[in-house]
Amino acid sequence: MFKYGAEKFSDELILAARFLLVLLYLIFGWQKITDYAGTVAYMAQTGAPVPGISAVIAIIMELFVSAAIVLGVFTRPLALLLMAYTLGTGIIGHHYWNMTGMAQFENMINFYKNVSIMGGLLLLYVTGSGKYSIDRLLQYG
Q1: Helices 75-93 and 101-127: crossing angle, nearest 10°?
Q2: TM spans, by residue (predicted)?
Q3: CA distances in angstroms from 135 to 49, 51, 141, listed in the order given
Q4: Which among 3, 17, 72, 80 is least surrounded, fewest beta carbons within 10 Å?
């Protein structure tokens, strides 16, 4: 019974999933763009290469790529791009294997949250953007 309900509302559920999947990026991307100096300082603190450029990349990925995914614009390739970015941020920003104590525990949680998000982005790549998307209007993907 549930299976048929899910199929009946699959496009609505894909729209909701797109939003929920990137909500974290939208929130933190907005924080990064409104506090660029703080973002650059954070990038330097985490060991990101070329902190100023890393901050710009983070803002583009987290705010603009995520907004495009919510709107359903080039959803499949952007899901893969955001997945690669998420892997990179996990490795650079949450390298728990080099830490001890509570920092190790907290970063291990965040690293595996990134891995889980990557799974959602991979699933979005497979399913596509659904009916409620610019992709559908343009008959893309």
Answers
A1: 170
A2: 12-30, 50-71, 78-97, 109-127
A3: 34, 34, 6
A4: 3
